[in-house]
């Protein structure tokens, strides 16, 4: 705030200086100025301006009496002083003020974000008894993602899906994997070496009794193969069969001991205690999966912590990803609410999050050749629709606070990483001048 | 708005429970005002002269934090701004982001006509209605006033969609407005160099105006304050949309800062925000890359506070996700997730029509229903109570089971043996694993439909009527 000075103060000062010649100057009343932050109408502006000008004239006269070369100063900065002031009508007829009002923009950081999201590290290098080439740390946020309020300590990461048998997938995804679909180890190598995956998720879908009913022991061999093939941290997923998954994940946790994998998933409709025990016994983290219900998420997290003694730094949440057009509004808001609850102190929800972004490929817009609805406009080529569906689904959840993305299409992975890293602040790009964008020939 | 409890609104209302507004009590009406699901003008008594003071006071208290700006006239006119919250679950976001696609004044006449048609007529069916684009931006590339006004006229002959006139040259904007001001277009834009002339123009024609101060929130606020002082309140603020790198990060934070300050009560910048994802075309040359990044920017700023945006790509793979993202974010989160469980008739089913099982998750139900109806398939559609969860997740989570299906049919008093000749249920492809259980539980013949209901027409050709055992 600028210091306010009243004219009477000035008179007092001058009195102290014993300036006799000022006695003839008549200054009436006390006038204070504080014009910032007021939305003024033109007539009021004019009136105030008039008063201000009158006052400055008085003060200029005082300065003149004191021997300061006032005319010279005014001449230089404002042009001639002595002209007649324009009439009120003259100003009102013009819209224009001659100068922009001075103002500065201010906004405060959010005070309510007092809690830090847990940091969860996945993967273990040789110094920690594992064989991974690097570790990945998720979480640690003190604000919504990319917000100026607080530094975001870790970027988003992408883990790409690998399956232990060839599954049916959208054509534009399948074309990338046709050469490796029979070999999970080669598949894992491909996503890491060619598609820049930060992590690999090995889905042991063949263990489902309704698919191949592969034994847990047999399936764990695939985990060993993938651990051999790549040195990134691993997510180990079951088939989603609630009866079989505990056994499958137990065995997998055993063979991956020391590697600090993420076991996917514990949920309320299966024996989460067994999976939690497998994680704590063998040093893995656990994915706490619920279905678009914040209270269920709290309940499961609570059970994992209090009933199963899973340490706080070993829990990741998957609150469920619904694709764009298929419930993303619920998925987005559910994640945003969970993150906001965490930041404001709900310690049952202060965990990093993971999204099964691959679910976007379930949306017909991502894979169907053309719209099944008669009156729809042409949907255009599906090979471009699919990846952008996965990207936009993931991007929305990134903005809601999601940390780890499980994805499928190499283009989606590349674009989502670049977009989130731009927002994160580590993606350098040449500065673009947008000041004349209108005339661009595009 | 300045109040958040029905009691605070109630004390200004007449309190005689007259019922004219459609609510039985003034307190109920007050609740609707706070939820913003009713207008104060729905209360007739408060509009009387003797209530004027109450009306004005309450109107002021109820005014949304972010000002509303109208663009266009007639049926297609749009309103932007009007938000009261930073997170949609806190209430809902109002006035969906206006998706504006561009044309330019150096286009060949046929191309122009075709592009306007495409923008206006692009449609995507979704949950009972079509998603559409909202407005057309006309860019001056020639920088010639007469060429611009000619283009504006041609666009106006083709469409009643609201228009945005884009130039930094005041003469060009004036030429455009001379032929279009009765359409209440938005002009784009005043910047640090032309703001006085643009202010004159906006004032002369009484149209809304965009203020553009790329990357400079102090300047943007100064401009907003200046225009407000000059008596103009229909302002839209563009803090600049930088398409890449750390400039994009700053852009993102500028949108957040502006909206947060506005919602928190800084009236000087509490205006709707404009984003221009079109700037991605300044970086990428090929259509696919530019369209992808434009879509990325569009999605980002639909979610984070863009109230209107200017876009270039009219490729379906850009428009479809943009339209859906806008719908996603502006769907009222207070609306129910579920439809009532029960067996619904689609078309005019007979005893030979299929009985198709789905869930009561609203999105699933409406998707299946529209696939069936739009392909003229007469059938019974059973919405099983899965607590509002979709098929795949409900099978995984145990909300869709054989006993739930049996219970659903029984509770809606649908008797498969009585009402059909085929005694067959069609299970969704994603619930195939329930086939045996459902047969055991219901005694019905069970066939497996496609995994996506969009494929039901083709599936019907091959699989219906079902082969008899």
Describe this structure in words.
The complex is a heterodimer of chains A (442) and B (469). With 442 residues, chain A is of the alpha/beta class. Chain A has two domains: 7-93, no CATH class; 119-424, Dihydropteroate synthase-like (TIM Barrel, Alpha-Beta Barrel), CATH 3.20.20. Chain A has helices spanning 7-16, 42-65, 70-78, 88-93, 171-174, 184-193, 216-229, 245-255, 272-282, 294-307, 328-343, 364-367, 382-400, 410-424; strands spanning 119-122, 136-139, 157-163, 199-203, 234-237, 262-266, 285-289, 315-318, 354-355, 404-407. In chain A, the strands form two sheets. An eight-stranded parallel beta sheet of chain A has the order 8-7-6-5-4-3-10-9. In chain A, strands 1-2 form a two-stranded antiparallel sheet. The longest helix of chain A has 24 residues, at 42-65. Chain A is elongated and about 100 Å long. The model of chain A is unreliable at 1-5, 17-39 and 79-93 (pLDDT under 50). With 469 residues, chain B is of the alpha/beta class. Chain B is 40% helix and 16% strand. In chain B, the strands form four sheets. An eight-stranded parallel beta sheet of chain B has the order 10-9-8-7-6-3-12-11. In chain B, strand 6 (135-139), helix 5 (145-158) and strand 7 (163-166) form a beta-alpha-beta unit. The N and C termini of chain B lie far apart (66 Å). The interface between A and B is large, with 91 and 115 residues.
Summary keywords:
heterodimer; A: 442 residues; alpha/beta; TIM Barrel; eight-stranded parallel β-sheet; 14 helices; B: 469 residues; 3-methyladenine DNA Glycosylase II, Chain A, domain 3; Rossmann fold; five-stranded mixed β-sheet; globular
What topology emerges from the helices and strands here?
The complex is a heterodimer of chains A (442) and B (469).
Chain A: H1 7-16, H2 42-65, H3 70-78, H4 88-93, E1 119-122, E2 136-139, E3 157-163, H5 171-174, H6 184-193, E4 199-203, H7 216-229, E5 234-237, H8 245-255, E6 262-266, H9 272-282, E7 285-289, H10 294-307, E8 315-318, H11 328-343, E9 354-355, H12 364-367, H13 382-400, E10 404-407, H14 410-424
Parallel strand pairs in A: 3-4, 3-10, 4-5, 5-6, 6-7, 7-8, 9-10
Antiparallel strand pairs in A: 1-2
Helix pairs in contact in A: 6-7, 7-8, 8-9, 11-13, 13-14
Chain B: H1 6-10, H2 26-35, H3 52-62, E1 68-71, E2 78-81, E3 98-104, H4 109-121, E4 123-126, E5 129-132, E6 135-139, H5 145-158, E7 163-166, H6 170-180, E8 186-190, H7 195-205, E9 209-212, H8 217-229, E10 235-238, H9 245-263, E11 274-275, H10 287-303, E12 308-311, H11 316-330, E13 342-346, E14 355-359, H12 362-374, E15 379-384, H13 391-397, H14 402-411, H15 416-419, E16 424-427, H16 435-442, E17 445-448, H17 456-463
Parallel strand pairs in B: 3-6, 3-12, 6-7, 7-8, 8-9, 9-10, 11-12, 14-15, 14-16, 16-17
Antiparallel strand pairs in B: 1-2, 4-5, 13-15
């Amino acid at each position: 705030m600028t210091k306010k000075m009243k004219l009477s103060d000035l008179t007092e000062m001058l009195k102290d200086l014993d300036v006799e010649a000022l006695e003839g100057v008549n200054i009436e009343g006390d006038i204070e100025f504080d014009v910032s932050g007021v939305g003024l109408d033109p007539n009021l502006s004019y009136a105030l301006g008039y008063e201000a000008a009158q006052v400055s004239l008085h003060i200029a006269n005082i300065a003149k009496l004191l021997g300061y070369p006032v005319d010279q100063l005014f001449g230089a900065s404002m042009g001639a002083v002595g002209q007649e002031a324009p009439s009120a009508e003259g100003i009102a007829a013009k819209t224009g003020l001659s100068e922009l009002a001075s103002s500065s923009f201010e906004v405060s950081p959010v005070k309510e974000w007092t809690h830090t999201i847990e940091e969860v590290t996945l993967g273990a290098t040789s110094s920690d008894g594992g064989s991974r080439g690097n570790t990945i740390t998720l979480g640690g946020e003190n604000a919504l993602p990319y917000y100026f309020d607080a530094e975001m300590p870790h970027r988003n990461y992408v883990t790409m899906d690998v399956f232990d048998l060839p599954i049916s997938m959208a054509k534009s995804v399948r074309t990338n994997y046709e050469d490796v679909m029979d070999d999970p180890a080669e598949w894992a190598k491909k996503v890491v070496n060619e598609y820049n995956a930060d992590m690999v998720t090995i889905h042991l879908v063949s263990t489902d009794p309704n698919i191949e009913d592969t034994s847990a022991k047999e399936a764990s061999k695939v985990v060993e193969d993938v651990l051999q093939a790549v040195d990134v941290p691993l997510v180990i997923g079951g088939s989603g069969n609630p009866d079989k998954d505990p056994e499958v994940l137990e065995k997998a946790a055993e063979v991956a001991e020391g590697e600090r994998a993420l076991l996917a998933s514990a949920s309320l409709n299966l024996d989460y205690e067994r999976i939690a025990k497998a994680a704590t016994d063998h040093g893995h983290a656990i994915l706490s999966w619920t279905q678009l219900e914040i209270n269920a998420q709290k309940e499961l997290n609570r059970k994992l912590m209090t009933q199963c003694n899973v340490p706080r730094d070993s829990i990741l949440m998957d609150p469920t990803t619904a694709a764009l057009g298929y419930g993303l509004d619920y998925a987005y808001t559910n994640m945003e609410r969970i993150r906001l609850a965490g930041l404001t102190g709900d310690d049952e929800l202060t965990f990093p999050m993971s999204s099964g972004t691959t679910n976007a490929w379930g949306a017909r817009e991502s894979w169907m050749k053309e719209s099944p609805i008669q009156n729809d406009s042409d949907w255009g080529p599906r090979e471009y629709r699919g990846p952008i569906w996965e990207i936009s689904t993931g991007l929305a959840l990134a903005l809601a606070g999601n940390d780890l993305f499980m994805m499928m299409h190499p283009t989606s992975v590349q674009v989502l990483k670049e977009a989130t890293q731009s927002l994160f602040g580590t993606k350098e790009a040449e500065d673009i001048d947008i000041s004349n964008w209108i005339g661009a020939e595009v | 708005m300045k109040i958040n409890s029905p009691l605070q609104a109630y004390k200004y209302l007449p309190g005689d429970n007259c019922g004219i507004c459609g609510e039985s009590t003034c307190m109920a009406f007050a609740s609707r005002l706070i939820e913003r699901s009713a207008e104060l003008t729905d209360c007739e008594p408060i509009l009387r002269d003797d209530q004027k003071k109450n009306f004005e006071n309450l109107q002021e208290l109820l005014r949304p934090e972010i000002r509303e700006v109208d663009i266009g006239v007639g049926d297609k006119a749009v309103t932007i701004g009007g938000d009261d919250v930073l997170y949609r679950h806190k209430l809902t976001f109002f006035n969906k982001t206006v998706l504006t696609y561009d044309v330019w004044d150096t286009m060949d006449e046929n191309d122009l006509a075709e592009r306007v048609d495409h923008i206006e007529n692009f449609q995507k069916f979704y949950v009972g209605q079509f998603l559409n684009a909202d407005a057309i931006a006309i860019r001056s590339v020639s920088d010639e006033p007469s060429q611009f006004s000619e283009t504006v006229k041609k666009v106006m002959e083709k469409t009643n969609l609201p228009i945005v006139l884009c130039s930094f040259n005041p003469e060009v904007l004036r030429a455009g407005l001379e032929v279009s001001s009765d359409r209440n277009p938005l002009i784009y834009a005043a910047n640090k160099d032309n703001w006085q002339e643009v202010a004159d123009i906006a004032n002369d024609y009484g149209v809304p105006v965009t203020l553009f101060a790329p990357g400079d929130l102090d300047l943007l606020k100064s401009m907003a304050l200046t225009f407000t002082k000059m008596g103009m309140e229909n302002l839209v603020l563009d803090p600049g949309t930088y398409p890449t790198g750390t400039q994009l990060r700053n852009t993102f934070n500028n949108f957040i800062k502006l909206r947060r300050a506005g919602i928190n009560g800084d009236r000087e910048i509490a205006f709707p925000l404009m984003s221009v994802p079109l700037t991605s075309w300044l970086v990428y040359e090929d259509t696919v890359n530019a369209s992808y990044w434009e879509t990325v920017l569009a999605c980002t700023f639909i979610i984070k506070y863009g109230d209107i945006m200017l876009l270039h790509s009219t490729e379906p793979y850009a428009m479809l996700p943009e339209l859906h993202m806008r719908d996603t974010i502006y769907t009222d989160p207070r609306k129910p997730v579920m439809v009532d469980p029960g067996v619904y008739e689609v078309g005019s089913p007979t005893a030979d029509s299929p009985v198709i099982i789905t869930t009561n998750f609203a999105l699933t139900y409406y998707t299946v229903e529209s696939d069936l109806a739009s392909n003229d398939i007469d059938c019974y559609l059973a919405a099983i109570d899965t607590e509002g969860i979709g098929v795949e997740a409900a099978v995984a989570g145990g909300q869709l089971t054989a006993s739930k299906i049996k219970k659903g049919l029984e509770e809606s008093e649908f008797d498969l043996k009585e009402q059909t000749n085929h005694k067959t249920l069609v299970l969704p492809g994603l619930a195939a694993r329930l086939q045996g259980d459902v047969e055991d539980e219901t005694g019905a013949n069970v066939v497996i439909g496609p995994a996506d209901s969009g494929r039901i027409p083709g599936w019907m050709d091959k699989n219906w009527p079902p082969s008899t055992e």
